[in-house]
Amino acid sequence: MKSKLILLLLILIPFSGIRSQIPITVSEDSLSIGKNLLPGLSVNIPEADYEKTKAAWIKELQAGTKSKVVTENNEMSIFGAILKNISPNPVNIYSRIVRLDSMLKLYVSFESKKDAYIERTSNVAEFIKVQDYLKQFAKDQYLAVVKAQSDTEEKKLYKMQKELSALENEKSRLLKSIESDKSLIASEKDNINAQNKELSTVDAELKEQNKLLSTLQEGTVKKEKTEQIKDLEKRKRKVLNSIESSDNRISKASNAIDKANNEIPVNDQKQEKLREQVYRQEDVAQKYADKLKKIKES
Length: 298
What we know:
Blueprint: H1 2-12, E1 26-33, E2 36-46, H2 50-62, E3 70-72, E4 75-81, E5 91-100, E6 103-113, E7 116-117, H3 124-213, H4 220-297
Antiparallel strand pairs: 1-2, 2-6, 3-4, 4-5, 5-6, 6-7
């Protein structure tokens, strides 16, 4: 029972860092700028980085206009911003981003003209456009965060799969090398058998020729017989060298087979361990992909 519990905990560990999708909500709110409390809206931006979100928000406000965002005490303001999807006229925008647990909150107030703000009570159509605008901005930031998380997990998975593939290829290479070395050993043994037969023939002929040589007197015939014996001895050395070479090749191939046979179980263990990691990482990557899809569809 204890071992099963440990196994379950090991399986769940990779998911402990995955936050579930947090809904993005836009609400009527107010924004404190200096000593003034301005009517406006707020939107939550889940999991977002403060500095990156602030930079993206400033870039968004400055798009399409020569006006620049002024920041003072974490309060941002821009005058004459162009937001064509909200109003055909330039607007003044006041905003602040606040850090919260696992999210940011963006407070915004839109001033259409001096002391006149876009509110539900003043202009419902523009207010709804502002709501949609803020929600889309928050969604884009949330998507960027989760997309980066998803990409990171996919890269981890790809790396593990690549390592697993390398181990599989290595095992395949080891198995092929074993078969190749076995074939080599069989071929070299055939050669040794053939060379031993040749050696027996040469030894018998050498014995016979040496016997004949001992009966000859000095002269041309004895000289020819001596040359013949030298040729036989040369053949014998060649046979012995061939046998020695085959023995060396067999020894080398046998050692290679032993080494490969020792490496295969280690490879199998590594594959098994890595394959389990791949399965877990596939689940992690899929959860991030599902989370990303849900945010896109929300």
